[in-house]
């Protein structure tokens, strides 16, 4: 049931903030309530009790008063406050709804409305109770007011991308760039890929949409480049579906049960290995052991060289394997002919092939 | 039958669109009360509400085949913590770790220093991942990368063959992206899709101007000597000469001049090389025909980029309300390319699937699709 407010305490048109501040993310909070699920009381009602219908009398979709269900009025009065193509100081403006439960100040700092100081209006005293910092944080991070658990994560700025690319040019591995700049491994690789294409376009003198990039980034939270940026967590361990089920295991009380043991019980590798950037654990261990910085750098460089060698060997093996087949290039296909054992063909015969059926749309599952 | 009025104001539903009526409907949308009715009714209602937002153009059968009851999640690991111990402290004591504050001591004075584990890690909202399989679809990913102003528009782009996946045209909106797939759209298409209203001269060309432009192109391409009333540089452009096309100086001049292009039709516009190409002094004196071209006629040439939109692009109305890119995508708006990094996941305190519905409704919707499974 919506709050049964008395008409006198409802926001009136005199509360509406002038339009000149329209890019403040907090402003929509201060707008009067205006949606179909609330009864809008008639301002001329002299009754000081609620005139809204009880819950069981209310229908789901009430007609909002006004032309086209209030849309015309909304477009004129409220839409300009939500349409902010260039927000001030790049503070994003997202949708907010009324009525909103604004976060209040915690503990002793919460001022009382009844025992307010002289000269402070009731409205002002109420506003003083609100934790505006938190409200601002919420407003700039959640585009869907009905779902507080969805938070917008910032994107990395153009300069940040440039830095990633420069580090790649300086022959640093993706893993190292990722650890240095606190970006996920996949993101670093993708940024480099995209940057390569961008450079190709510049070479070809194809125009870039710099204006669009600039203006789109001005509307959303962006992580600027700093020497030690904190963009996102890089050690997110994927929850394996084997760990979702309960597992009852008898373990000796006197023995420690470690991550290694847990991995063995579940038939998985331990989290120390499965985690991306597992080498950071070794680094932290060295830090705890008080290893000299030069020594740490040396060990890390060795590890990188070893990993690069392994990756190279793996790639070579793969190419060798693929190159074993005889390749016949045609216009449409690239046949890779391999010696096959004809005796195993029969297993396909029982399976109905649907590929010639009418209406079966064959969407490719992968594009190489 | 699928509803045709998707942005209706009388019975408003939330939609994935930047349309002004969709924004109004989203603004006044309130989730239904989840506690009324039987459990079946609650689930059905929740499913209705959520499906109106997520892939409403898909049939229920199609979505049912995409739904997976397994939901992806990640846990953030702390290497510094892991280096300190082998993990045995988490299960020490009675099996739940020694640092957990016993219930009898919770909320007592002097014990605030110890935090319960729930407080440190807010729960993982797994139910928010119910519609995660839809995020793999190409059309949804195009919308999420801010290349289209609605999912339906993104779908149309796919079906019209505007979207490339790994450099190959992919005309299937239902293509399921794999981690590492790169999709791209022509920047002009994107700029028009998510851009504000363009200037009038971009949109329409008078019939007279159209036919004149056609004639001028034919003239230039015919290589006969009759086209004397065209300047040499313009002739090159019209004939499709590549060298002339990258002549940026001329184009910037065209861009500057075209602000007053409404009036240039039929009027001589001075020494500007691009404006009204055929209206040189010699052309009228020789008694030859006169072309009525707008000053930005170059932008109407086939295969020729409309340069102005690159410099004067403005966002579509209400774009700021939807301007965010989820973490599983990496987008470069310079070249309108994006990479699908991985499948969306839920993590402690937030899920990556953009979704306007609260946990209670999503829980009910998830339960609806769980049945018979």
TrEMBL record, chain A:
Gene Ontology MF terms in the entry: structural constituent of ribosome
GO cellular component: mitochondrial small ribosomal subunit
UniProt keyword terms in alphabetical order: Coiled coil
Entry superkingdom: Eukaryota
A biological process term (GO) from this entry: mitochondrial translation
Coiled-coil portions: 291-325
InterPro entries: Ribosomal_mS45 (IPR021036)
Keyword Coiled coil: yes
Pfam families to which the protein is assigned, alphabetical: Bot1p (PF12298)
Name of the protein: Uncharacterized protein
Originating organism: Orbilia javanica
From TrEMBL, chain B:
RNA-binding S4 domain: residues covered: 136-199
GO biological process per UniProt: ribosomal small subunit biogenesis
Gene Ontology MF terms in the entry: rRNA binding; structural constituent of ribosome
Entry keyword Protein transport: no
Domain of life where this protein originates: Eukaryota
UniProt keyword annotation of Ligase present: no
Keywords, alphabetical: Ribonucleoprotein, Ribosomal protein, RNA-binding, rRNA-binding
Region of interest called Disordered, as start-end residue ranges on this chain: 253-290
Coiled coil regions, renumbered to chain: none
SMART domains attached to this UniProt entry: S4
Sequence ranges of Low complexity compositional bias: 258-282
Any one of the GO CC terms: mitochondrial small ribosomal subunit
Database matches in CDD domains: S4
Family that this chain belongs to: Belongs to the universal ribosomal protein uS4 family.
UniProt protein name: Mitochondrial 37S ribosomal protein nam9
Organism: Orbilia javanica
């Amino acid at each position: 049931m919506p709050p049964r407010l008395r008409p006198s305490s409802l926001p009136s048109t005199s509360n509406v903030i002038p339009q000149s501040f329209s890019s403040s993310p907090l402003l929509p909070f201060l707008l009067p309530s205006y949606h179909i699920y609330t009864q809008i009381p008639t301002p001329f009602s002299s009754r000081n009790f609620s005139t809204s219908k009880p819950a069981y009398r209310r229908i789901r979709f009430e007609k909002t008063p006004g032309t086209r269900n209030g849309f015309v009025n909304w477009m004129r009065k409220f839409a300009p406050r939500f349409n902010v193509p260039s927000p001030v100081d790049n503070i994003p403006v997202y949708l907010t709804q009324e009525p909103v439960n604004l976060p209040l100040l915690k503990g002793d700092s919460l001022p009382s409305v009844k025992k307010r100081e002289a000269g402070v209006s009731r409205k002002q005293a109420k506003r003083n109770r609100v934790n505006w910092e938190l409200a601002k944080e919420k407003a700039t991070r959640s585009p869907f007011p009905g779902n507080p658990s969805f938070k917008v994560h910032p994107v990395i700025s153009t300069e940040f991308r440039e830095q990633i690319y420069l580090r790649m040019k300086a022959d640093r591995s993706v893993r190292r760039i990722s650890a240095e700049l606190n970006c996920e491994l996949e993101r670093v690789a993708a940024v480099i890929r995209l940057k390569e294409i961008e450079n190709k376009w510049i070479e070809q003198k194809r125009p870039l949409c710099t204006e669009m990039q600039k203006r789109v980034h001005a509307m959303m939270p962006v992580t600027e480049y700093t020497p030690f940026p904190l963009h996102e967590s890089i050690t997110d361990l994927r929850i394996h579906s084997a760990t979702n089920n309960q597992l009852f295991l008898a373990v000796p009380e006197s023995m420690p049960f470690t991550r290694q043991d847990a991995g063995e019980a579940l038939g998985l590798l331990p989290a120390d290995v499965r985690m991306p950037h597992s080498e950071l654990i070794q680094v932290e261990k060295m830090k705890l052991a008080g290893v000299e910085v030069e020594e740490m750098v040396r060990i890390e460089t060795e590890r990188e060289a070893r990993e690069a060698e392994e990756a190279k060997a793996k790639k070579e093996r793969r190419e060798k394997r693929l190159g074993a087949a005889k390749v016949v290039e045609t216009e449409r296909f690239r046949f890779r002919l391999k010696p096959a054992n004809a005796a195993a063909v029969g297993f396909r015969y029982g399976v109905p092939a649907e590929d010639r059926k009418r209406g079966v749309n064959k969407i490719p599952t992968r594009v190489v | 039958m699928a509803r045709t009025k998707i942005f209706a104001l009388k019975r408003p539903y939330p939609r994935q669109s930047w349309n002004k009526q969709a924004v109004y409907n989203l603004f006044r949308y309130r989730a239904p009360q989840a506690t009324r009715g039987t459990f079946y009714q609650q689930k059905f209602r929740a499913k209705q509400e959520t499906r109106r937002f997520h892939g409403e153009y898909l049939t229920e059968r199609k979505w049912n085949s995409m739904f997976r009851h397994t939901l992806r999640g990640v846990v953030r690991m702390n290497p510094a913590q892991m280096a300190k111990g082998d993990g045995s402290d988490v299960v020490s004591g009675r099996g739940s770790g020694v640092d957990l504050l016993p219930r009898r001591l919770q909320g007592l004075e002097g014990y605030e220093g110890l935090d319960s584990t729930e407080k440190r890690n807010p729960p993982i909202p797994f139910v928010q991942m119910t519609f995660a399989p839809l995020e793999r679809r190409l059309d949804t990913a195009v919308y999420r990368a801010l290349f289209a102003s609605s999912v339906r528009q993104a779908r149309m782009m796919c079906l019209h063959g505007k979207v490339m996946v790994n450099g190959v045209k992919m005309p299937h909106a239902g293509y399921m992206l794999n981690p590492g797939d790169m999709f791209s759209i022509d920047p002009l298409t994107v700029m028009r899709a998510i851009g504000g209203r363009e200037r009038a001269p971009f949109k329409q060309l008078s019939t007279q101007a159209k036919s004149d432009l056609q004639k001028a192109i034919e003239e230039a391409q015919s290589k006969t000597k009759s086209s004397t009333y065209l300047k040499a540089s313009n002739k090159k452009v019209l004939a499709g000469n590549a060298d002339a096309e990258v002549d940026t100086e001329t184009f910037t001049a065209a861009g500057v001049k075209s602000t007053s292009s409404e009036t240039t039709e039929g009027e001589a516009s001075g020494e500007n090389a691009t404006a009204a190409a055929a209206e040189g002094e010699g052309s009228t004196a020789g008694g030859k025909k006169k072309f009525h071209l707008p000053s930005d006629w170059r932008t109407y040439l086939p295969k020729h980029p409309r340069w102005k939109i690159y410099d004067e692009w403005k966002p579509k109305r209400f774009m700021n309300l939807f301007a965010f890119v989820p973490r599983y995508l990496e987008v470069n708006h310079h070249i309108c390319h994006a990479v699908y990094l991985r499948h969306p996941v839920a993590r402690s305190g937030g899920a990556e699937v953009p979704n306007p519905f609260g946990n209670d409704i999503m829980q009910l919707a998830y339960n609806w699709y769980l049945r018979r499974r």
